[in-house]
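Anyone opening a protein record will find just a pair of labelled lines. The record below illustrates this layout.
***
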Amino acid sequence: MSTLSPARPTFTSPFADAKVTFPHLLRSEWRKLWSLRSTWWVLGVTVVIMIGFALIFSLAFTNFVSGNPDAAQGVQEAGGIPPTTFVTAGYSFGALVAASLGAIAMTGEYSTGQIRATLSAAPARLPVLWAKLTMIALVVFVVIAVSTAVAYLVTQPILSSHDINVDLSDSEQLRALIGTPLYVTVVALFAVAVGALIRSTPGAIVTVVALFFLVPSIIGTIASATSASWAENLNKWLPSSAGERIITAFSGGSAPGGPNGGPGSSLPLFDAWPGFAVLCAYTAVLIVAAAFVIKRRDA
């Protein structure tokens, strides 16, 4: 005679009916971001670059003018070096390092396969992209804003000893300081979108470096050497040439800096806010493309 085995109790996960909300996704992205050792390294290098370049440029310039008290005033009257140039000296390289963080935040899950679990928990998919973009924007903006503020504080005693002072009541100088975290943040978001499209960390980083450093250098050199209209127009519309104008555009002269050679040169460039709007437009288009790909392509 057979005996009936007792029915096994059915296990029900306490999270079975839990709804994955956007705040939950933000919390998840926060934990994933700070659990990566690369995040600490990348942000640490970014801070060192922003503050270190500001100190190096300030010390180098003050050493140069120390033997000639009239040199600093002459340079400023010529419109060659606005005071904020020293504070924001590292913005180009800081943007490239921050872009690496944006690319890693997007592509890291694809390289490990964790993206499958993430998209299974959030089958709508697009909220995952919005959460990543939001988290990268917040972290990068805060880090760059703090780094810029520290760079301002540590360079002012050096510069003020030679009568070079950043005037926060000057709208152009204030815009350059505020524009630094804005520019770097948008570049990082640009990298997130590229990472979503390429799904490869090396590929995304190389693409961003090429677009924001290599290509502007080549096109800017061609435009300066040949004065070809096509090169000048292309240089004007490049993401870096346009976007960095929020930092480098000054009515009394152009600050040197930027990989394309535009600031400080005679090449035609956008004004500050229109140029930044061009960079934002490029980034928005890439984000839309990334959203389409994430929605349609298998993980």
